[in-house]
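Bumping with the actual sequence this time:
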Amino acid sequence: MKIDRASLALRRQPAAQLHGKVVSAGSLSISVTGLDPWLRIGARLRLSPPAAPAVEAEVVGFAEGHATALAFGPLDGVGPGTPAMLAPSASLAVDETWLGRVLDPLGRPLDGRPPPPPGPLARPVRAAPPQAGQRARLGPRLDLGVRALDAFATCRRGQRLGLFAASGVGKSTLLSMLAGGAAADVVVLALVGERGRELREFLEDDLGAAGLARSVVVCATSDAPPLMRREAAYAAMAIAEHFADQGRQVLLMMDSVTRFAMALREIGLAAGEPPTTRGYTPGVFAELPRLLERAGPREEGCAGAITGLFTVLVEGDDHDEPVADAVRGILDGHVVMDRSIGERGRYPAIDILRSLSRTVPGCLRPDEAALMRRARAVLALHAEMADLVRLGAYRPGADPAVDEAIRLAPRIEAMLGQGKGERGTVESAFAALAAAMEETADAA
């Protein structure tokens, strides 16, 4: 009996808490001491300023006997001597009721509704990708609902595609088309560093009620601290992994990887990393594959997969800038959006000739592959001869291949145009492509 009473008394005692204190603070980083034996890179802290709300922070480095940490919110009220307490590691208890919700990277609601109930099992936000030798192969081809992609950059379940675009080319509209038209069970959308005013516009005008109903949106706006912007990508990936492990087909869309890399650059510089190419720190290029490799098929025997579409901002149409170059080498294909195509009035403004899916050979029938190659050849020849035709330097009949390209290319371009509300499949995309080419040939 005495042992039982003692055990009960011990269980009623509050858990021991480890405390340190802030010794210095700046605009982004703080230095903490007193917790040295228990701290590590990535450890979470809770700062408790005397006259302000508690602030969560994360350890990003160590220097001169102190831990350097960055905060997830404003450092108002934090100063030397502010208590710092060790907090639990980052995790999300994802539940079915998270579908249709708009959340911040910490799982707090941004849609004015009550917080979503936690699921039965908390999942760590930072996780390793599946072991390469135990990972399932890519699944069958996936209907994305966009003719230009279904016909010329056909995607498979578990594939990862990069969407390379400058600002103002129609990237958000294309993402909304994919969210509504792709053959996926769940859509997870990560908005990293988005403008605050654009969130409701995207949700209400682009995504719509039907698209939101099967989606989980994780958002960290451009004014959020770099840790929050970085955490948006990790949180979205953890949510996608939860649903994929249930055997569902998940479409993960991240807008954008570039802003994720920029947040990593800010964190690395604050932690004392040296700037390298265009100011990016070495840790940025180590972290990109760790994040992107988590998408894809799950372990062998799991029916679920994460099909990833990751946008990359190419400022000034520089497709060889460091982040774009690194991401292109990690992913399974790339889709390029071109401003000049949008200026001609064809949306989505996807440049077919510069877009590529590396899994096309494994998911197209021989007749479809032949049709796609022929259409690409027609578009390439038309682009090559466009200036001569425009100037009147080409005489019809001089080259049968050029004459065919002049006839067929406008029909193919018309087929590639698609309204925001239109939906399709891979089968219907190839049928439309074949019809456009055959009809024009007959008319000629």
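The tokens above came from a reply further down the thread. The first strand starts at residue 19 and ends at 25.
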